[in-house]
TrEMBL record:
Cross-referenced Pfam families: DUF2512 (PF10710)
TM spans (from-to): 7-28, 34-53, 60-77, 89-110
Protein name: Integral membrane protein
UniProt keyword annotation of DNA repair present: no
């Protein structure tokens, strides 16, 4: 049920943004805008939000959504409108606005939909919202004995 609610929020947001850009600025009908929003929101939810976001984080998911949204709007918009040159700029404007929305939408997804539960208390862990911590490992050189043997040999 959480995925359905998240997908519905994404669909409504895409519909509002694309209705403003494609509907008012480029005069594409509302039915075509809703169809484009439905296809884009479903496709980008699966690729960007369910696959890329949990594995690579918010930035990677937002950067993945931008070219996919641009290509999707450009391709689907060419079928809806009669001006292929204008759809490139419409796709670019829409993709920029949608990427900004996606950046903040991913925080909603991480907190409410994509959660890992802590084993002890059942509390959600938000490891994807934190910066990664890197550690350095220090060990002895494995070839030190060979170097000592090499130094003992007469030259």
């Amino acid at each position: 049920m959480k995925h359905f609610a998240a997908l519905f929020v994404k669909f409504l947001s895409y519909s509002v943004i694309l209705l403003f850009v494609l509907g008012f600025m480029y005069e594409i009908s509302a039915g075509d805008v809703v169809l484009i929003s439905l296809i884009l929101s479903a496709g980008l939810y699966v690729t960007g939000d369910l696959y890329v976001l949990p594995r690579f984080g918010n930035r990677a998911a937002a950067l993945t959504d931008f070219p996919l949204a641009f290509l999707g709007i450009w391709t689907l918009g060419n079928y809806a409108g009669d001006f292929p040159r204008g759809m490139g700029s419409a796709g670019l404007i829409s993709a920029v606005i949608l990427s900004i929305f996606e950046f903040y939408y991913h925080y909603y997804l991480l907190r409410n939909v994509i959660q890992e539960r802590d084993r002890k208390g059942g509390k959600p862990k938000f490891h994807l919202l934190k910066k990664p911590v890197y550690h350095a490992e220090i060990s002895e050189e494995p070839l030190q004995r060979n170097r000592e043997e090499h130094n003992r040999r007469p030259t």
